[in-house]
Amino acid sequence: MPGSFFLDGEALLHSAFDFAGCRISYSRNNSVLAHGIPAKLGRTVFRYDSPAGMTVRSEQRDFILRFSDLNTEPVTGDEIVMDDQLFVVSAPNSEPCWKWHTRLTHSQIRIHTKAAGHASSSSSSSSSSAR
Question: Could you give the CA distance from residue 45 to residue 73 in angstroms, rounded to a whole number?
Answer without folding.
Answer: 21
